[in-house]
Specification:
Number of helices: 6
Order of helices and strands: HHEEEHEEEEHHEHEEE
Oligomer: single chain
Length: 347
């Protein structure tokens, strides 16, 4: 019974012990009452106290009744003792069962904690490996872009080795970084399409503020926007930790940073062919009319199959007074950017 205070019992076990304790108390009271009654009966049948007027037959009858009552009382007392012993044994067995269950629960809790710690360590390792994989993929993609640009330059140089080159003088041969208004077009498959770059960036700013809460439980998230003017945007936000040194020490804070974004056309037939685009009434012409050349730079994301058309398009834009920035793109590469990218350089 002393082990009862050493373990926290399951719900309902306190009530069971109270019931057993009450039952034992009632049995003890009954035994006491029966013993008192038996003693009184024996005193009554004592011959020294029998009134002289009681006959021998009546005395014999009362004595027999007292003996029967005594026998019944002894039998009932023995039965109660057996019940008490049985209840005590059952209570002891119950305590052993509770102690065993408590030990089993402690063992399972220990195993659960060990598995949880192992899962957390594996999750951390997985996150580190994923971040390293993403960094390697990004570096590999940048290297591929550089290799593609070099290959395109070498190919163009080989094609122009035996050709007579006619140089056209442009008054702005020095390239300068674009900081003003910039309009983007995609030149691919002989077709030029307006890229809603600014509208997509504005939508990205709004959506990123709404989605940033997801980084509370994840190191990075990827979302999709659009389409706008035939282009969809996929972007990736990452959770960053920034450290700032102050007079009282280093202060660390968490923030959200854009990792990259890509623009994907919903169809490869977007836009209009270059010949049609240079005439009045075309979508390309209408966009130029809304953006005068004195404060507008035209950035063209040009793919290998349309490099020749870009030269024609650049001279046409120069004749209209526009500065032009070229973004050579490898085949299959999406238009996009990141905080680690660079601005366009116009000529």
């Amino acid at each position: 019974m002393s082990r009862r205070g050493q373990h926290s019992l399951e719900p309902g076990q306190d009530s069971f012990l109270d019931v057993v304790a009450n039952l034992v108390g009632i049995l003890i009271i009954l035994i006491t009452v029966i013993g008192v009654q038996t003693k009184q009966a024996m005193i009554v049948v004592d011959k020294s106290e029998v009134p002289p007027e009681i006959s021998a037959a009546e005395l014999k009858e009362r004595t027999s009744a007292a003996k029967n009552l005594l026998a019944e009382s002894q039998f009932e007392e023995q039965r109660m003792e057996r019940d008490i012993v049985a209840n005590l044994n059952e209570l002891q067995q119950h305590e052993l069962e509770v102690d065993y269950r408590q030990r089993e629960r402690d063992r399972l809790q220990f195993l659960l904690n060990a598995v949880t710690r192992q899962m957390e360590e594996q999750k951390k390792d997985l996150d580190d490996n994923r971040r390293r994989h993403i960094d390697v993929q990004r570096d590999l993609e940048l290297a591929r872009q550089d290799a593609a640009r070099v290959e395109l330059a070498v190919r163009a140089a080989k094609q122009d080795e035996d050709k007579t080159v006619v140089l056209k003088h442009l008054p702005t041969p020095m390239a300068k970084t674009v900081f003003g208004k910039e309009i983007h077009f995609r030149l691919q498959n002989g077709r030029i399409a307006h890229v809603p770059f600014d509208a997509m960036i504005e939508l990205l700013h709004q959506d990123a503020q709404r989605q940033a809460w997801k980084l509370k439980d994840a190191p990075a998230i990827e979302e999709q926007l659009g389409p706008i003017n035939g282009f969809r945007m996929n972007y990736r936000l990452v959770r960053k930790t920034f450290s700032t040194t102050t007079r009282v020490g280093t202060v660390t804070r968490s923030g959200v940073e854009l990792d990259w974004f890509h623009l994907h056309p919903v169809s490869e037939d977007l836009g209009e062919n270059v010949e049609s685009a240079l005439h009045n009434g075309s979508q390309f012409h209408d966009i130029l009319e809304l953006n005068p050349p004195r404060n507008t730079t035209i950035t063209i994301w040009v793919y290998p199959d349309s490099f020749g058309l870009y030269r024609e398009l650049k001279h046409a834009l120069y004749d209209r007074g526009y500065l032009t920035a070229a973004r050579p793109m490898p085949a299959g590469q999406s238009i996009g950017g990141s905080p680690r990218g660079s601005r366009s350089a116009a000529q």
